[in-house]
Design goal:
Chain lengths: 114, 690, 168, 499, 550
């Protein structure tokens, strides 16, 4: 175990692909956490954005370290575009919900259930 | 007459009553006099033909068995067996020919008697129709040369017995008795049927002659002598049921709920004798062990029912127990090997017992009329304690009745003396051959008892003063149509019709005709051979005659002493031995026993199964449901769903798990997401670990 | 520790810390503004990864577009009296556990799989904009067009949904 | 390059037509603001033309736009399926009082329907992970909007909110998975990915998590348990036409995409000694076990929960989940046979499921209720329609002589032929369970009297009856004479780039 | 035998479908027209079946040889050319009858006609009733004539839905429960059957030539493989030929666990229909709730489909498994007999009593066929026929009294013999036939079944013989409770059977009596076939003994 940690700490300062990936993983997890826990719909959407950003970091990191092909960057471009489109639609829906229910707390909008 | 003609004649005899039945059942009510003449003339014709057949058979073919066979079902080439046919047919040997006459004769007489006795009955034509179907089925038993048809006839007489016992079905007791008769008989039939199955499974034929030949050639069922014994005993089970042998004798006394002529015909002379006939038919295949058992069953039956008869007060019940007792005698006779004697007793007993029943019928008829005149509907016309002094009122009935009683008691010059004596001699022979002396002891004791209770009956019914003087005025002799049959039967109770020697039947035509057939079973399990047995039988003859005369005399004397001269008080004895008396009055408790154990047991069992079916199997769910119903979250919904159709436990479980699974659908999207991410991780770890 | 590494850690810290605030702050406005820093941090990481075009795009679209959209959303759905708009959280504990597991296993996986990947030769001087532009016109032409359709759909849809009802 | 693009373009005419239709619909909507009939006609014409153009692609095997989109019999099959569904949905929408009485104009509705169709059609052909993601998002975004279309109904709004959050998360998960795959293989092109994987040097664990994450995206689209949670709520809340569309076309697109993904990417294309028509799974990542587990969960869950439903839309939602489970089993067997069974099942499912939804809609139009209790005594009031519904339900149960039986027969046959006995048994038992809730519907229709005081017969227009017949006839006919159907399915298993 | 170019079996099967269409075309309120046209359809069906009875060649075996089948019709139904990865799919519309099915065909036609008569007084949605009834009729007939498993299965399932509705709509108080129970139970069994069928399909191959003629593997070897194509098949007859099994396939070989499994799956499917002991609980409910005509059909025909299926499919296709499991079949048969009889005795509902007696009587069938010899199987098949007629009578009898008294409580009646003499007469015949009185048909079949089974299972058969008494017990007890004794005051107004009721009951009674005396007309028809069937089993038994198994 000790050897694992010593290797790990020795590895830490030498930034390379995995460092970015781990940042991405943590960002992804934070995004998930936000989606799961925030009552406010807009905060939930923020969580979604975090998840997408995490994926993008992956794409770009892999693009950089994976033999310099730009597919990853291209993909990231599309992800950003889609994030914008999705955010627009989602916000419109949230506004609509607000008009209808006078709340944007996702957990309160649960008429459809078993 | 050619053999074919004889056979055809006998088939005509068989079919005639069936034709009568069919006509009567459909058109009986519309015929003049409701068709009694039709049925009666048909059966009378049958009688004439039967006598012809018997005569011709005796004259022309005294030792042959005439057979007429036809293929009933053809199984063609059966795998593993080869060609197989079920051949049925009729056979006439001396046994059958004699039975043919006995059955038709008594049937004819009973028909005539019934015309008088049943006058004005609401189902008069139905009654005659049933008599027709009975005659048909009984004749079928007689003529069958194979077990299958025998069984068919066997069941059909059961049916007709059921119908006739239940003739007055408005009476609960009558319909109960009918049912009891049928069901108790069926218990015996199970054995009979299993016996048939054993034989068929091995020999692939129902034909008795073929079965005997097969056994004779050394092929025995399942290669085991015990199976052969078992087959014999199981077939005898049929006889136990039909001939009311211990322990299935309980139905016969109850069967007295039927009209008295029916009792005479079916429950005294013919049907109940079918069991004896069956044993006689299958006699060659009985092993020594089987015969021993048969003998003991017969003896026990004879003894038990004779003792019960002593305590009975119903005229027909006394006769019923006497019938059982006499049947036990016959069975015992066959069992000990006295084939001829046993069957001979069947014939003689048929005459005098039919007579006794018809006589009692005449008495009841008279009593009934008298009571009817008095508008008395409470007094039991069958209870001998209400009778007495009928001798003068009904002379013909009395005299004929006395003759029958003498015959059954075994007084010399009567037919009963000869046959009974012969059986007793057989038992003595058996005793000396096998060392089983209990059987002759019972035999003689029962002979004494028989004489005693029969004379008790005669005395209480006909002697002394009538119990009710007013009623006595209305008592009349029965009409001619009823008394003539009585006289005929009385005549037939004399020795002369059976043998020229009143003391020994051995040389009579009937004994000549009925030679004991040789056993076909392997020698190691066979009973004493005919030769040996006849030797012993002959030796025992004189001893038996003496002893039987003695015990009969004693029995008669005690009867007169107790009931006529009142030297001994019957009541006092009853009081002194109140325990045994009650025991006898209670018929040894058999009815209670069966009611309590068998019938209630079965009913309890059926109810248990019903409960089991409704609760365990079917309601695995509905039951499980009731437990779960309590739990809160299932709530009232569950009930309706269960009733709506969760058919079994699995359905319940699936419904239940559906209910649980529903809980995942909370309506909160973030909860869903937790589930999703959780599942993703779960899959990931599950597959990593695998 | 080279400059590159230090810069990485700075950006990584900015990204993750602000993301942490986004997710955990009870104040919506705080969350929204933290998100701004997250996006900046991510853009920095992009730059470190020599994705200059994307770093710029990230700032333009995310900060200039999506974040503003979200802020509008916050404002429109709350009666804004002060900057102190609180919001609640739910099922934090199960979420925490699951997320910890996710983060742990993903990080572990990444660490073990890509621990030692040689850094390719740097292409710092050449910008990626042109290459990406070319790719969008050739290989990714179809996705590019489809993306435009998606934007159109989103446009129409968003307009339709948020339009005042009753007006045909 | 540009010549290639031009050459590829003519294999892309159907999609282009759809795009044009989409734009045309928007423009028409702007011109004819007062009535939506013009838009619907335009959409109808566009869809029909698209259908005809798709027909022209029969038998083509090609990959266009730098392997972005495959044009192959497999895609052809699903495209046809989706287009037919779309046409039927347009017909449904014309007669839906839910939509028409919503007080909103339907121009946008129809145009978005086209966009949704386009997304699904793209899903059927997408052969690049990015393209798959885009197609998924296109259809998702269109569906978010459409499921919230009747904004007046709170349920509808709620459905769309849940859908968008759930959908965004799911596509995010999938995207993350895609990014890992990209990292592992350095490519987004599924053929190239397969080339890399086929060499065998990959990290199985990373591949596993990528696969599971991708599965979350696909599972969401085909509503497979445990990624199905949005389905009941959205199906119940959304307008019934959209529900019907999602339950068939969306599922078809999702299935097409998933099958292509798994079959092209995660197959050991260098495997030797496999019989013709059978594939070998990638060593170290036996994903078909995952699919098998998901299939079992899906059908069992769908059926068990459906038992408790009282809203018919919701009931049908669960039933559609269960059906996805049956279909997934076809993928488990890793053979063309299973694939053909899935496709065959889809054709059958199209008719029976749409039929059921349509009749539920027709009845709701008149009675205003989708509650099972309100179906009491409906039988005598609307004999033809209820008999048709009964037949659709029987078909959904999978009883002969309806087409549903043939679908199940082929699935089970594929399973048994490849030794998946336990899976076949579970599938079969599930269809017994499913009977129970389907029967509840016709029990209420025929066995129970109406609770209303006045019982008036329901009237349906000839067009509606004809529409019902359009779905009813195949449902019965394909059950009795299924030869052509099987041939079609068998011919359509050819996926570009696979043997 | 052809009519208008179409084979008689097709006519028999699809005539009711035509009838159904006809009925659907008649306006709703013309109830008599609907009744009469239904009756005429079934009467034509009956006539056709009588024609079959006349023309049937008693010497042809059938069972596993196509040449031995009669009135065969074979036409290509589904034909899909083979492709690289999947062989030819060829399903024939293949119908034909042999000694095993001919009795069932006749029985179906007979009982259907009788049941239509008994449904005459249905007033609630007459049109729907008769339409569904005719569909049911077609389904039943189809099951008995199909020689292709696929076709068989389709007909098998086709009956479910009409049955569900017939019980569910026209039934008694708890009709919904009974109907769904019936439906679920049967479907449960049939999906297992479906799986077994598919497994069989992939295990059996035959060769087909360009003209669609099928060759078994052996024939093909003789013929030479030129121009022949190998394919899987649903043909039952091909499944019966061990030579056709693909080596290494799921069900190849003998005495393998897969074969046992498939056999058990099939068995459960059929046992539920019979219904055999642990699967029987749907029956009492279904019977009690079903309208008279449906009870008649249910008891008269439907139950036979289970035993027929065993004989037609399970026995010849899985003789090895049959030999292995025959004791189980026999045991279940005996349990059904005894248990059914005992539970029947405890019933107070007339119909329920007869329902349980059905279970008991069908146990005889099961036991008889478990014997695996000619007598036993003959007894079983004959019992199927007889139970069909006798139980149909019993249910009609209940129907008659229920129509009048609107109760089926046994304890509420009594003394009806005087009030309804004609009715009572027929009832006595039916009851005594049911309790196995010689001279009536039930006895012969029971006797043969027991005689046969005794050769294989001695002890079990002896236990089974106990039912002779129990049956007599509850039958007579019922007779007593209903007909004997005093007539309660409230039933003084009951009328005797009317002509329609007499017309439906008397033919059955006459058949029961006639076959009781002379069963050969029916036995001869089936004998050759059943010998062949027994031969197959016998061979399997020998093979098993040789292998030292069992």
């Amino acid at each position: 175990m000790n050897s694992f940690f010593s290797a790990f700490f020795a590895w830490l300062p030498n930034v390379q692909l995995a460092h970015f990936l781990i940042v991405s993983a943590v960002l992804f997890s934070l995004g998930l956490y936000g989606i799961m826990t925030r009552r406010n719909a807009i905060l939930v959407l923020m969580g979604v954005e975090l998840v997408l950003n995490a994926a993008n970091i992956n794409f770009i990191a892999f693009s950089r370290y994976g033999g310099a092909n730009l597919d990853g960057q291209a993909a990231a471009v599309f992800v950003i575009i889609l994030a914008a489109a999705e955010a627009a639609v989602a916000l419109a829906i949230v506004l609509n919900i607000y008009h209808r229910f006078q709340t944007v707390n996702v957990d309160e909008i649960s008429n459809l259930k078993e | 007459m050619s053999q074919e003609l004889l056979l055809n004649l006998s088939i005509v005899i068989l079919v005639l009553p069936l034709v009568g039945f069919t006509l009567m059942i459909f058109f009986g009510k519309r015929l003049p006099r409701q068709g009694d003449w039709l049925e009666t003339s048909i059966i009378a014709t049958a009688l004439i033909l039967a006598v012809t057949v018997l005569y011709q058979k005796m004259m022309l073919y005294p030792h042959e068995t005439l057979a007429l066979n036809f293929t009933w079902v053809d199984f063609h080439d059966v795998p593993g067996i080869g060609p197989m046919k079920i051949v049925l047919g009729f056979g006439i040997d001396n046994l059958a020919a004699i039975m043919l006459v006995v059955v038709t004769l008594i049937s004819t007489l009973v028909h005539f008697f019934s015309i008088g006795y049943m006058q004005g009955d609401i189902r008069y034509s139905r009654y005659f129709a049933y008599l027709g179907i009975f005659s048909f089925s009984m004749l079928m038993i007689v003529l069958a040369d194979n077990l299958f048809m025998l069984y068919v006839g066997w069941e059909l007489v059961g049916l007709s017995s059921y119908l006739l016992i239940g003739h007055w079905y408005e009476k609960q007791s009558a319909s109960n008795a009918a049912m009891k008769a049928f069901i108790v008989n069926r218990v015996g039939d199970i054995g009979f049927f299993i016996g048939i199955m054993i034989l068929f499974a091995n020999f692939h034929t129902f034909n008795l002659q073929e079965i005997f030949e097969a056994i004779h050639s050394g092929r025995i069922p399942f290669n085991s002598e015990s199976w052969l014994t078992a087959a014999g005993i199981l077939i005898f089970c049929g006889a136990i049921g039909k001939s009311a042998q211990f322990p299935l004798h309980v139905w016969l006394p109850d069967a007295m709920e039927g009209p008295t002529p029916v009792s005479a015909l079916i429950h005294a002379a013919t049907m109940v004798a079918a069991g004896v006939y069956l044993v006689a038919r299958t006699f060659p295949m009985m092993t020594a062990d089987a015969l021993m058992l048969i003998a003991y069953i017969g003896a026990i039956t004879a003894f038990i029912s004779a003792t019960i008869a002593i305590a009975q007060n119903d005229i027909k019940k006394v006769l019923a127990y006497s019938t059982i007792s006499q049947l036990g005698y016959m069975v015992m006779g066959l069992g000990v090997g006295a084939y001829t004697a046993g069957f001979f007793h069947l014939v003689t007993h048929a005459m005098f017992k039919a007579g006794l029943f018809l006589g009692s019928g005449s008495v009841i008829h008279g009593m009934h009329h008298a009571l009817h005149h008095q508008h008395d509907h409470h007094t039991d016309p069958q209870d001998i304690r209400n009778m007495g002094g009928l001798k003068s009122k009904m002379p013909v009935t009395y005299w004929t009745f006395l003759i029958y009683t003498l015959a059954i008691s075994g007084v010399p010059l009567t037919s009963g003396f000869m046959s009974k004596d012969s059986i007793l001699a057989g038992t003595l022979a058996f005793g000396s051959l096998t060392g089983q002396y209990l059987i002759p002891i019972i035999g003689f004791f029962v002979a004494g008892l028989t004489a005693f209770y029969m004379f008790r009956l005669v005395i209480l019914t006909f002697y002394g003063e009538h119990k009710d003087a007013h009623r006595a005025e209305h008592l009349h002799e029965s009409p001619k149509i009823m008394t003539v049959p009585l006289m005929i039967l009385a005549a037939l109770s004399f020795f002369i019709f059976y043998s020229s020697n009143p003391l020994d039947a051995a040389n009579g035509w009937i004994s000549k005709a009925l030679e004991r057939p040789e056993s076909v079973v392997p020698a190691s399990v066979a009973a004493a051979s005919t030769e040996v047995f006849e030797e012993e039988h002959h030796h025992a003859h004189n001893t038996a005659m003496m002893l039987s005369l003695l015990v009969a005399g004693i029995g008669i004397a005690i009867a007169f002493a107790m009931y006529h001269w009142k030297k001994i008080s019957a009541d006092k004895i009853a009081e002194t031995f109140s325990g045994p008396h009650k025991f006898l009055l209670n018929k040894w408790g058999f009815d209670d026993l069966y009611m309590g154990v068998v019938v209630n047991g079965t009913l309890a069992m059926t109810n248990m199964w019903k409960w089991f079916d409704n609760t365990i199997i079917d309601g695995a769910v509905n039951g499980a449901g009731s437990i779960t119903k309590v739990t809160s979250f299932v709530s009232g919904k569950f009930d309706s769903i269960v009733i709506d159709g969760l058919v079994n436990l699995s359905a319940y479980l699936s419904g239940f798990s559906g209910l649980v699974l529903r809980k995942f659908q909370t309506g909160k999207v973030q909860t869903y997401i937790v589930f999703v991410v959780f599942s993703v991780m779960a899959f990931y770890f599950a597959f990593r670990l695998l | 520790m080279q400059l590159f590494d230090i810069v990485f850690y700075v950006f990584a810290f900015i990204t993750l810390f602000s993301a942490f605030v986004v997710v955990f702050s009870r104040n919506i406005i705080y969350s929204a503004f933290s998100l701004l820093f997250t996006f900046f941090g991510v853009a920095g990481l992009y730059a470190l990864l020599q994705a200059d075009f994307l770093a710029v795009t990230q700032i333009l679209i995310y900060v200039g577009g999506i974040l503003v959209l979200l802020l509008f959303g916050v404002m429109l759905t709350n009666k804004v009296i002060s900057v102190d708009i609180k919001t609640g959280t739910l099922q934090t504990i199960p979420a925490m556990i699951i997320v910890a597991v996710v983060a742990g296993s993903l990080s572990g996986l990444f660490y073990s799989t890509w621990k030692e990947v040689p850094t390719p030769a740097s292409t710092v001087l050449k910008t990626t904009t042109r290459s990406i532009g070319e790719m969008l016109m050739t290989t990714y032409l179809l996705p590019f067009e489809i993306a435009s359709v998606i934007l159109l759909v989103a446009l129409i849809g968003a307009a339709m949904i948020s339009r005042r009802e009753g007006k045909v | 390059m540009s010549e290639q693009i031009l050459k590829d373009l003519h294999l892309f005419y159907p999609e282009i037509t759809l795009t044009i239709t989409f734009c045309a619909a928007i423009i028409t909507d702007l011109i004819f603001r007062r009535t939506s009939i013009v838009v619907s006609s335009v959409v109808m014409i566009g869809l029909v033309i698209t259908g005809i153009l798709v027909l022209g692609q029969s038998g083509v095997q090609a990959s266009i736009f730098d392997n972005m989109i495959a044009v192959d019999p497999f895609a052809y099959f699903f495209k046809m399926l989706i287009i037919i569904t779309a046409i039927l949905i347009v017909v449904f929408s014309l007669g839906s009082s839910e939509l028409n009485s919503a007080g909103r104009k339907l121009g946008e509705y129809y145009s978005l329907l086209v966009a949704l169709t386009l997304g699904m059609v793209l899903m059927a052909g997408a052969s690049n992970l990015l393209m798959m993601y885009l197609a998924l998002e296109l259809s998702s975004i269109a569906s978010y909007i459409l499921s919230g279309y009747t904004r007046e109904a709170p349920d509808s709004s709620e459905a769309s909110l849940k859908y968008v959050i759930y959908g965004a998360l799911s596509s995010g998960l999938m995207l993350y998975g895609i990014s890992i795959i990209y990292g592992l293989t350095g490519s987004l092109d599924i053929y190239a990915i397969n080339q890399v994987l086929a060499q065998g040097n990959y990290n199985t664990i990373a591949l596993l998590i990528a696969g599971v994450l991708a599965m979350a995206g696909f599972g969401y689209k085909i509503s497979a348990v445990p990624f199905h949670f949005w389905t009941p709520d959205v199906y119940e809340g959304a307008p019934i036409t959209i529900t019907a569309f999602l339950s068939v076309a969306s599922k078809a697109g999702g299935f097409a995409m998933m099958i292509r993904f798994f079959k092209v990417t995660f197959i050991d294309s260098n495997a030797v000694s496999v019989p013709v028509g059978v594939w070998a799974s990638l060593k170290g990542f036996e994903w078909y076990h995952l699919v098998a587990v998901i299939a079992v969960l899906t059908m069992t869950f769908g059926n068990l929960v459906a038992i408790w439903q009282n809203n018919l839309k919701r009931l049908l939602a669960y039933s559609s989940i269960a059906h996805a489970g049956y279909m997934l089993t076809g993928l488990v067997v890793l053979s063309n046979e299973g694939l053909a069974a899935i496709m065959l099942y889809f054709v059958v499912y199209l008719f029976m499921n749409l039929g059921a939804f349509y009749i539920v809609m027709l009845i709701a139009n008149q009675t205003g209720s989708e509650d099972i209790e309100d179906y009491k005594g409906l039988g005598p009031r609307a004999p033809f329609i209820t008999v048709a519904l009964a037949i659709f339900l029987v078909s959904l149960t999978g009883l002969p002589p309806t087409a549903g039986f043939i679908g199940k027969l082929y699935l089970f046959a594929a399973l048994l032929n490849h030794g998946w006995i336990w899976l076949a048994v579970i599938g079969a038992l599930n269809s017994v369970i499913s009977l129970y809730y389907y029967v509840r519907i016709f029990r209420n229709m025929y066995l129970r009297p109406s609770e209303q005081q006045q019982v008036t017969p329901l009237n349906f227009t000839m067009l509606q009856k004809v529409t019902v017949l359009v779905m009813l006839v195949p449902t019965i006919l394909l059950g009795l004479y299924f030869g052509p159907l099987v041939q079609l399915a068998q011919a359509s298993v050819k996926i570009f780039g696979t043997p | 035998m052809q009519l208008m170019g179409i084979g008689v079996l097709t006519w028999l099967t699809f005539l009711p479908v035509l009838g159904m269409v006809l009925v659907l075309l008649i306006p709703k309120d013309q109830k008599d027209a609907i009744r009469w046209s239904s009756l005429i359809v079934t009467l034509i069906q009956l006539l056709l079946s009588i024609g079959i009875f006349m023309k049937f060649d008693r010497g042809m075996a059938g069972i596993n040889s196509e040449a031995g089948m009669q009135f065969v019709e074979k036409a290509t139904w589904i034909d899909i050319k083979s492709i690289a990865w999947f062989g030819r799919i060829h399903i024939d519309y293949f119908v034909g009858i042999d000694g095993l099915s001919v009795t069932m065909v006749i029985l179906t036609a007979l009982i259907s006609a009788v049941a239509i008569l008994s449904a005459w007084n249905i007033e609630k949605s007459v049109k729907g009733y008769f339409a569904l009834f005719l569909l049911l009729d077609a389904g039943m007939m189809g099951v008995f004539v199909s020689l292709d498993f696929f076709l068989f299965y389709i007909f098998w399932e086709v009956m479910l839905l009409p049955m569900y509705f017939l019980i569910g709509i026209w039934g008694g108080a708890r009709r919904e429960y009974a109907a769904i129970k019936f439906f679920l139970y049967t479907l449960f069994g049939s999906v297992l059957m479906l799986l077994a069928m598919i497994a069989l399909y992939f295990s059996v191959n035959v060769y087909i030539d360009a003209n669609g003629v099928i060759y078994s593997v052996t024939e093909a070897m003789k013929h030479g493989l030129d121009g022949l194509e190998k394919m899987y098949t649903f043909n039952m007859l091909a499944m019966m030929d061990p030579g056709n099994y693909v080596p290494g396939s799921l069900l190849a070989g003998a005495h393998t666990s897969m074969r046992y499994l498939a056999y058990v799956a099939l068995f459960i499917g059929f046992a539920i229909k019979i219904p055999c002991f642990p699967f029987h609980t749907w029956l009492p409910d279904a019977h009690v709730e079903a309208p008279t005509a449906i009870s008649v059909i249910l008891a008269g025909v439907l139950l036979k489909m289970g035993t027929y299926g065993l004989l037609r499919i399970s026995f010849p296709i899985f003789p090895d498994a049959m030999v292995h499991y025959s004791w189980m079949l026999a045991l279940l048969g005996v349990i059904s007999m005894v248990y059914g009889a005992l539970v029947a005795m405890a019933q107070t509902d007339f119909k329920k009593l007869i329902a349980y007696s059905s279970i008991s009587h069908m146990g005889v069938v099961t036991l008889g066929m478990a014997s695996m010899n000619t007598q036993g199987i003959t007894g079983a098949v004959f019992q199927m026929f007889n139970h069909g007629t006798i139980t149909a009578m019993l249910f009609l009898i209940v129907g008659v009294i229920y129509d009048r008294a609107h109760t089926r409580g046994l304890n509420e009646f009594g003394g009806l013999m005087n009030q309804m003499p004609k009715y009572s007469g027929i009832m006595v015949v039916a009851f005594f036939a049911a309790l196995g009185l010689p001279g009536l048909s039930g006895f012969i079949s029971e006797a043969f079944a027991l005689l046969g089974s005794f050769q294989t299972f001695r002890v079990l058969t002896m236990i089974a013989a106990v039912t002779i008494v129990i049956t007599a017990g509850y039958m007579l007890w019922t007779l007593q409770r209903v007909f004997l004794g005093q007539l309660p005051e409230k039933w003084k107004g009951l009328t005797d059977m009317n002509t329609r009721e007499a017309i439906m009951l008397w033919p059955l009674a006459l058949i029961v009596i006639f076959l009781g005396i002379y069963p050969s007309p029916i036995l001869d028809m089936m004998n050759t076939s059943l010998n062949a069937l027994a031969g197959i089993l016998d061979q399997a038994r020998h093979a098993t003994t040789m292998m030292g198994m069992n």
